[in-house]
Design a protein that fits this description.
It contains 13 helices and twelve strands. It is of the alpha/beta class. The relative contact order is 0.10.
């Protein structure tokens, strides 16, 4: 009963306060209905990313998850899963199973490196198993309709190996990717951020976003003016402009609009609205789209931008709603814990609002810093 209640509350909340909000035009939807956006998720431990929910009916999901303890595919019925691990070679390799399933890795845990951090127990190895590995290019060689437009990789240290096994996809289909990167050697022999960044730049991808995670040490010392060590992050790359337009130029004329639209939808999903407008202007100047379509795309993008006032009101209301539900279900420990997580999430979003709206500087207030 508690689980059903939680799920009902989650659905109600998602309608009122979606995690990600953006809109697409009728033309965008028409093109994508004929040729779906393809999003591949490697290491889909908790299901596919909710940022694709606004276009889930126009998206084909492809997942790769060999650890059956982690699987949770509840997004849409348009999900194809390959129960295999990905790497840069085909064969068998040991998967080190950790107490937290999502932290399992093909690389041995570097216990010496993480032993002083509070969450080290999550990375305790509780077993191992041999798994079959293949490359992304091999898996999709006979499934051309599943070649990804966007690739998300989260495989705990083996991320660079995965994309090295998908060079053909990088060169011919992938328009953007999100990849986990490390700033310390959490896994023995695993590549660090600089190696991943150098490789992706050589493939024509530019870094746009870096979402970072810092870890507290075992002493749990932390305060408002503390800066724990940076451990890992999710880096988001987009195919650079020259490569994008070269790829658009190389396809048949009827394919050009849908390729551009897919790129724009990916930018919308990650909030790169300013860059999306720039891409539209360049596409117009190169006669890839008409003036009418360019203006329509711009209106769509601008309508996706949430005003500061609207953002503030939305999350204040979410906090008030969460607090009210919290008080009603105070005696129920299970629900109370879930609501505490929910409240914490919206407090963070409000903190982000304050940070981004008070950290602008430079000429025209065009520089935004997250350094405190």
């Amino acid at each position: 009963m508690n689980i059903k209640l939680i799920e009902s509350l989650k659905k109600f909340h998602q309608k009122l306060f979606p995690d990600y909000y953006y809109v697409i035009s009728e033309l965008m939807a028409k093109e994508l209905s004929n040729k779906n956006l393809v999003v591949a998720d490697v290491g889909a431990a908790y299901g596919t990313d909710s940022r694709w929910h606004p276009v889930k009916n126009l998206t084909q999901f492809v997942t790769f998850e060999p650890d059956t303890r982690s699987q949770d595919y509840t997004t849409t019925n348009k999900t194809v899963n390959f129960a295999t691990g990905l790497s840069n070679i085909k064969g068998q390799q040991c998967l080190y199973l950790t107490k937290l399933p999502a932290a399992s890795s093909l690389y041995p845990i570097n216990s010496e490196q993480i032993q002083n951090f509070a969450n080290k127990d999550w990375h305790e190895v509780v077993g191992s198993t041999l798994i079959e590995l293949d490359t992304l290019d091999n898996c999709l060689a006979t499934r051309q309709e599943l070649k990804p437009d966007f690739l998300k990789v989260d495989v705990e240290g083996a991320d660079l190996d995965v994309i090295k096994g998908g060079v053909n996809a990088l060169e011919n289909s992938i328009l953007g990717l999100q990849i986990e990167v490390s700033f310390i050697e959490r896994h023995k022999g695993a590549p660090c951020f600089s190696e991943t960044d150098t490789f992706l730049k050589s493939q024509g991808f530019d870094l746009f976003i870096l979402a970072r995670e810092h870890w507290l040490r075992k002493n749990l010392v932390h305060g408002i003016n503390c800066h724990p060590q940076l451990i890992w992050g999710d880096a988001v790359y987009f195919l650079n402009k020259d490569k994008l337009f070269a790829r658009i130029e190389s396809v048949e004329s009827q394919e050009k609009p849908v390729l551009l639209i897919k790129y724009l939808v990916i930018l919308l999903a990650y909030g790169a609205y300013d860059y999306a407008i720039e891409i539209i202007d360049d596409a117009l100047s190169q006669n890839i789209i008409s003036e009418e379509n360019a203006q329509g795309f711009k209106r769509t993008i601008m309508s996706s931008i949430i005003s500061p006032f609207s953002y503030l009101i939305r999350h204040v209301l979410a906090l008030l709603l969460g607090a009210a539900v919290y008080l009603v279900f105070l005696p129920l420990g299970f629900i109370r814990k879930r609501l505490a997580v929910y409240l914490n999430k919206h407090i963070r979003k409000l903190a982000y609002f304050v940070l981004t709206n008070t950290s602008k500087g430079g000429i025209y207030n065009s520089c935004i810093s997250d350094f405190l």
